[in-house]
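New here. Your pick:
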Amino acid sequence: MYLDSTMLLVLPAILLSLWAQFKVSSAYKKYSQVNNRRGFTGAEVAKQLLAVSGIRDVRIEPVHGQMTDHYDPGSKVLRLSEGVYGSASLAAAGIAAHETGHAIQHNLGYGPLGLRSTLVPAANIGSRMAMPLIIIGLLLSSGSGSFGLMMVYGGIILYSIAVLFTLITLPVEFNASSRAMELLSENRILAEDEVAPTKKVLSAAAMTYVASALTAVLTLLRFILLSNRRR
């Protein structure tokens, strides 16, 4: 990455990201060792919540890795990581419920989720192509001037799409967590005193999305400052 004093602008977001990663790791580690009293595994939690929500066309599958849980709206598959699918821990219940929240969003036609899904291809291109264009453009702008700046501006536009994607992700993730906790409580899958610890896992995970969005926004501002300097 192009290094100069503007890196200080992004430093708070980097520190927040490190703190958020620590919080989610510690919360997951702690509550993955505490089983829910009803003994429901992550897969069973997801199955029950899909059923009470009237959703019968979503498959639940295990997926390799840790914290790799996700809902695929294209194939209507809810994939739970190995530590969630067969685990009866509070962490597993919360994560499974959160991913089920995405399936419910999809079933209800939740607007931000649809917009995020639409932006995925463009955001992927933007995140891959923006940085090389901006860095090369900044290097060239010191010599060839306008051509280098055109590359920088092009990179900024591409990166802006990736930033928009991270911002839209925030309401999607917060809404899924809110639905998850409501469903877990209303359907008595968790006991009353188990709700708060489970919420801590989801709240910690939500902070990683906040940190990611802040990092993206501040990085975009940094690139705009660098382009203005060159101009």
